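Inverse folding, one chain.
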């Protein structure tokens, strides 16, 4: 199917099952380590995680839709959660995983997050995923283009992301979109839990908006 038939837009509450399915499919290896080896549990937890911001109308969660199906998604951070949203997510996670596995998942999410805190000038990209049967069709590039437009609309000066140094497919997509590697780091914990020893921080600087003449 043509890439022209793919729409990229902010997520709506009705998209939550599709977002969860994309992420569970695209990051199945990591999701098994973080949450569970049961796809239905992973999807339930992911729906709960995204529910608050999507329902509230946060427009930095993007989806790629084709013929009524969500085939890709991308998250732009920092994405803030209210205390009520975090409490609801914690209850849902404990209900699906139990308390002990929820605590383990929280630690592993912190590990995979690399303790990175974007500054206000950044649009930090995470969770870019495309379902297996739609990869290599330009869907990821469309999501990145919309993320760049979002960053400009929200007066961010650069796009950033971390990518595993051995993920050649993702590196190619990001470099093609204009990202360059600005830092490389090793991480013992991600090597232990996920088999990923090195990470690249990639960046795409955006042109400053023209000054308004008074």
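Residues assigned per position:
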């Amino acid at each position: 199917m043509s890439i022209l038939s793919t729409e990229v837009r902010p997520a709506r509450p009705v998209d939550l099952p599709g977002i969860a399915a994309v992420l569970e499919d695209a990051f199945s290896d990591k999701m098994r380590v973080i949450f569970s080896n049961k796809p239905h549990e992973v999807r339930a937890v992911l729906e709960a995680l995204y529910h608050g911001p999507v329902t509230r109308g946060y427009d930095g969660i993007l989806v790629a839709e084709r013929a009524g199906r969500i085939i890709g998604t991308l998250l732009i951070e920092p994405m803030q959660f209210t205390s009520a949203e975090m409490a609801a997510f914690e209850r849902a996670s404990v209900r699906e995983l139990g308390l002990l596995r929820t605590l383990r998942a929280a630690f592993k999410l912190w590990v995979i997050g690399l303790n990175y805190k974007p500054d206000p000038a950044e649009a930090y990209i995470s969770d870019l995923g495309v379902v297996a049967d739609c990869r290599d069709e330009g869907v990821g590039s469309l999501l990145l283009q919309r993320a760049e437009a979002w960053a400009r609309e929200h007066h961010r000066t650069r796009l950033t992301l971390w990518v595993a140094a051995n993920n050649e497919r993702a590196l190619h997509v990001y470099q093609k979109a204009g990202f360059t590697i600005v830092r490389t780091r090793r991480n013992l914990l991600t090597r232990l839990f996920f088999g990923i020893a090195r990470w690249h921080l990639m960046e795409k600087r955006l042109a400053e908006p023209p000054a308004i003449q008074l």
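Strands lie at 6-10, 61-66, 69-77, 122-130, 158-164, 180-186, 198-205. The chain has eight helices and seven strands.
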